[in-house]
Here is the input.
Amino acid sequence: MSDAAKDDVPLHRTLGLTDAEAARIVALMGREPTDPELVMFSLMWSEHCSYKHSKPLLSGFPTTGPRVVMGPGENAGAVDVGDGLAIVFKVESHNHPSAVEPFQGAATGVGGIVRDIIAVGAKPIALLDSLRFGTLDSARSRFLFRRAVEGIGHYGNCIGIPNVGGEVQFDERYEDSCLVNAMCVGVVPQDRILSCAARGVGNRLVLIGNRTGRDGIGGASVLASAELGDDDADKRPSVQVGDPFTERKLMDLCLAMSEAGLLVALQDLGAAGLTSAASEMASRGGVGLSIDLDRVPLREEGMAPGEVLVSESQERMLAIVEPAQMDAVVAMARRHELDATDIGEVTDTGELEALWRGEEVVRIPSLYLTDDVPFCEVPRDPAPTPEAIDLSSVPEPDDLGRAWLDLTADPNVASKRWVFEQYDQLVGANTMRRPGGDAGVVRIPGTDRAIAVTLDCAEWLTELSPYDGGMASVLEAARNVACTGAVPIAATDCLNYANPEKGSTGWRLAESIRGMADALTAIGAPIVSGNVSLYNESPRGPIYPTPVVGVVGLLDDASTSIGTAFARHDDAILLIGYGEPRVDASRYLGRCAGSPPPPDPDADAALYRLLATCARERLLASAHDISEGGLAVALAESAIAGGIGAGVAVSAGRRADEAMFGEGGGRVIASCHPAQVAAVSALAGDGVHVTQIGAVGGDDVVIDAGGSVARVPLRDLAQVWEGSVPAALEAQ
Amino acid sequence: MSATRVAVLRFPGTLDYESAARAVEGVGGEPVYAHHEDTALPEGTGAVVIPGGFSYGDHLRPGALASRTPIMSAVRAHAADGGKVLGICNGFQILCESGLLPGVLRPNASLSFICRQADLQVADSGTPWTGGRDEGEVLSIPFKHHDGAWFGDPGEARVVLRYAGENPNGSIDKVAGISNLGGNVMGLMPHPEEAQEPLLGSVDGRVLFAALLS
Here is the structure.
C-alpha cells in the first residue's frame, strides 16, 4: 500500500477496529481519542486480549471447588495440593507468531506462559506443549515443525524448566495454521500467591527486566486476531524475539523479590505490552495508574508514545511496590543484572494516564479498555449430524499384523521421541515419569507428593460432534493423568478455533465448551485458567476445532506412581474401563468421519477412582490409556516401553480389525502380578469392567480377536514406532 | 568430624545448583553456594562442584564467559593445591575453557540438543571418581546437551567414562567424562545429580559426588 492510499484509510481501520467500534470509543470517551489511545483500544479490544467472541461462552465452565485457591481471571489459576502449597498452571497459544516465524514464535510462547506463572509468585516446575502441524510430506510443515521444536527447546532448556510431556499431531488442516500451545506449571506457598491487582495510592509502578523496543508491535491485533494470508512474511516484524537468559534472571529476581515481601502486585507483559499489563492491574485493583513514558528504558531512539505503550518486547514484568521498598527493589535487580525502573504510580482516578515529554497523551478509564469491550454473539449454525461408518465399507485387511505395523508407523501414532529428546526433561531432579508415557509425573519439590500433567485434545470428534468432542478432550486428558495413579484435580484449556463468524465454527465453539464443562463437572476438575485463539484459518480453510485441555492430577505419595511399561514376565494383562471400540473417527479409519458413541463422564470418573485406588495399594505394574490406534497400539506401546512381549485375547465384536484398532469409550490396558488380579477385579463397578485378557512375556506381541490372530515381533513394532517420525523428516 | 564443605558454583544462568547441592547433602557433604563475582571460595571449602546450566546464556561459547570470572581464579588455585573439582555439563565446558581440563566441547554431531538416559562405561578405574568400580562396569546417568562432543587428545587426560554402545554426540573416543592427569579435576557431560534417587530411576550418580568427600 502506498503512503497516499494509506492516508485515505482512517487510522482505526488500519489498526483493525471496525467503524462501529471506533464510534463506541468516541461515545465512551466523550471526545476523539488521541492516536496513542486509539492504538491502545485497538489492541485491548482485539479478540486476543478481550475474548470478545468467546467470553460469553466461557461462563459455563466450572471454576470453583474445594481445592481452588485462585480461579480464572488472574495470570494463572492455583489449586491446593496440601502442605500449604498451591500448584499454579495455565496453557496458552502462540499459534499465529509460530506460523509466521516458528523458532521465535514458539520460543516466545514458552517465555510468555512462564511469565504468567512467575507473575503469581510461583516457581515453574514443568512445561508441556501441544503442537499441530500439516502432514510431514509437506516441506513447509516439516520446516515449521522442526523450527518450532527447536525454538521451544532453545527457550525452555536455557531457562531450566523441565519439559515433561504434551502431544504432537499432523493433519493437512493445520498446514497453514499450525498450533503451538504451551503449558507451564509452578508451585508456590499459598500465603505468598501474588495478585495482579494494583493497590495503594502513591505506590510505585515498576517496570522490571528487558528494555523496550519496537519488536512485536501490534502482535495481538495484527497477528493473533485475524486470519493468515499470503502476505504473512510482511508480518514477521510483529513477532517478538526471545532471550531466555534474561528470562531466567527475571524469574530468579521476581521470585526473590516475592520471597522478600517486596511486591504488592505483579503482572507480566505479554500481548499489547504495557497497555494490557497496566490496564489489567488498574481494573483489577479498582485504581488508576499514571505512567511517565519518558522513564521507560528504551532499546532504540525515536519511538512514538503509542509504540512504547504497546511494544511486546519480551522478558518484562510490571510490579507495584511501596515507596519505602523501592531502594531494596532496585538493589536486588542490580544484583541480578537487570533494570527495575520506577515509571509511575498508583492513583485514585481509575484512569490510565500516560505522560510523554511532559504532556498528557493518554487518559482512559481502565475499565473502558478491559470491561467495555463490545462483546459479540457468535453465530451458531449447526453442522449436519454425521452418520456412523458403515463397517462393510471399510476394507478388511488380509494381514492384520501388517495393518498393525502400518498403523504404528503413522506419525500421529508413532513415538515423538524426536521431539522430546530435544527438551531438557530432567532439570531440577524431580522428574519421575518422562515424556512418552500418558502423563509427565513431577515430584513437588521438597515434598513426597507429585503431580501428573498432560495436554490432550480430540479434534476429530470435536469437528464431527462438538459436544462429545469437548467432553472427550477433557476425559482423554484426565484419563492420561489417572493412568499414572494420580487423582485429576483441576484443568486449564486452550481453545483453538477458526474464524467464529464463518460456517459452523461458532456453533462448534459453543457446543464443545458445553461438552467440556459437563465433563469437568462430572469428574470434579474445575477450570482455573485458560486461553482462546480464534481465526486459525487461511484461504485454504479452517483448522479443526481444537480444544486443548491440560489436566493436573495429584499423587499424595510420589512413590506410588504407575508407568506405561510392562514390567515382568507372566504378569496378567487387564482391560479396564467401559465402551466398545469403533472405527468411527479412529486413526485406523484414517479420516475425520463417522459417529462414535458418546463418552460417559461418570464411568470415566469411576475409572479414575479405580486407578487411584490401585496405585495407592500398589496393585498395578503398569497402566496405559487406549487412545489413537486402539488396543493394538496401546499394547504395543506398553510392550516397547518395557522391552518385553505380550499376548492377549479379546472378543472380535463386530469385526477383528475393529476390536484391535478401534477407538472409543474409556479403556485402559494394565498389568499386575497374577496374585493381584482378584484384588483389582474386586474394585470393578460403577460401569467399569475389569477383564483379564492375557499375559506379559515372549518376544512377540500377539492379539487374538475372536480367533483372528495378529502376531508381530516386538522389535519390528519398536522399529516402526521409534523410526517413523525421524524417517518422515529425513525422507525428503 | 564435621562434613566436608563443598562449594557449589553459581553463575548467572547456572541451572542445576539446587539439585547439585542436594546430591552433595545426599552423600554426607555440606554444600555452600559460591557466586561468580566472589574472589575466594567459602571458608573451609574442601571440594568444588560446577553444576550445569547455561552460564551467561551460552553467549560467545558455552563456558567461555564463566571461565573468566573472579571465582574461577579461586577454583584454579584450589585445583593447583590438589583440591577436587567436579564439573558437570556446562561445568565441564567451563573447566575446558578455563584450561583446568584439556580439549573443548563441540556441538553434537546431530547439531541438536539431546536429552537421554545413557549407559556410561568406566574406562579408568584408577581415579577416585568412579568409587572403585572396575573398568567396563556401567553407570546409568542421563545426559542433556547441545555442545557435548569432547574433542581433544585423550593422551593429555584420563578418560574416566565413555558412552557404552552408540556414540550419541560424536565425541572423540566416545568420551563422556575425563579427569586431568592428576585425577583431582573431573568433567563430564552427563548429569550425576539427576541419578541420585531410586524414585528418579537411578542412583549411579552418587559415586561421583561421594568422590568429592574422599
About this structure: The CA atoms of residues 32 and 117 of chain B lie 28 Å apart. DSSP finds four helices and eleven strands in chain B. The mean pLDDT of chain B is 96. Helices of chain B lie at 17-26, 70-80, 90-98, 206-213.
